[in-house]
Design a protein that fits this description.
By secondary structure, the chain is an alpha/beta fold. The protein has a domain of 95 residues: Dihydrofolate Reductase, subunit A. It is 19% helix and 34% strand. The chain contains four helices and ten strands, in the order E-E-H-E-H-E-E-H-E-H-E-E-E-E. The strands form two sheets. An eight-stranded mixed β-sheet has the order 5-4-3-6-1-7-10-9. A two-stranded antiparallel sheet has the order 2-8. The radius of gyration is 15 Å and the shape is globular. The two termini are 16 Å apart. The structure holds NADP nicotinamide-adenine-dinucleotide phosphate. The site of NADP nicotinamide-adenine-dinucleotide phosphate has 29 residues, from strand 1, strand 2, strand 3, helix 2 and helix 4.
Length: 159
């Protein structure tokens, strides 16, 4: 099964604060939409609630939550990583879209990552787990250093 993480991460691994993102990079949001449309997206309950439009259109959403009997229209709600894997797409890439708690549990299971690295440090309350770059091969890198904040897109494949 293909598990792909997609995340925007600061130089200090910061990814969120007050259940919101730390920056607004419209090109990154557009890229996120292009990459994930037509696929299954998997997220924690807090990330689901942080979305401006939910569920995100033209994607199948799986939301992880311990809250019993959670029922969200047009969303599959599951209560464990094991149950995510049972109902995930066996044919196409499944995208892990956050947040910190969910990235931490899926990082060891992922075989690909789309990183947007924002070249600044941010004060945050949620961080991405430490990436061991020795485990990953950089397949692609695209720099946008004239943007404020400057950022780079990176595609990593598990070695
Ligand atoms: N920079 C980025 O690319 C990016 C992407 C996504 C999100 N974010 C940011 O990340 C932050 C949210 O991250 P977060 O870590 O606070 O929350 P989260 O990972 O989105 O959601 C956490 C919730 O997911 C459920 N959950 C997670 N693992 C579970 C498991 N194994 N079994 C059952 N339930 C499980 C629990 O829900 P219950 O409490 O219902 O049990 C838990 O409270 C926000 O600031 C958001 O903006 C950033």
């Amino acid at each position: 099964m293909d598990i792909t993480i997609i995340v925007a991460i600061a130089e200090n691994n910061a990814i969120g604060k007050n259940n919101d993102l730390l920056w607004h990079i419209s090109g990154d949001l557009k890229r996120f939409k292009e990459i994930t449309t037509g696929h299954t997206i998997i997220m924690g309950r807090k990330t689901y609630l942080s979305l401006p439009k939910r569920p995100l259109p033209n994607r199948r959403s799986i939301v992880i939550s311990d809250i019993a009997n959670e029922c969200i229209p047009n969303v599959d709600v599951v209560d464990s990583i094991e149950n995510v894997l049972k109902i995930a797409d066996k044919e196409k890439e499944n995208f892990i879209i956050g947040g910190g708690m969910v990235y931490k549990q899926f990082l060891p299971l992922a075989n690909k990552m789309y990183l947007t690295v924002v070249h600044k440090e941010y004060d945050a309350d949620v961080y991405f787990p430490e990436i061991n770059f020795e485990d990953w091969e950089i397949q692609n890198k695209e720099e946008h250093l004239d943007h404020e904040p400057p950022f780079s897109y990176m595609t990593l494949i598990k070695k």
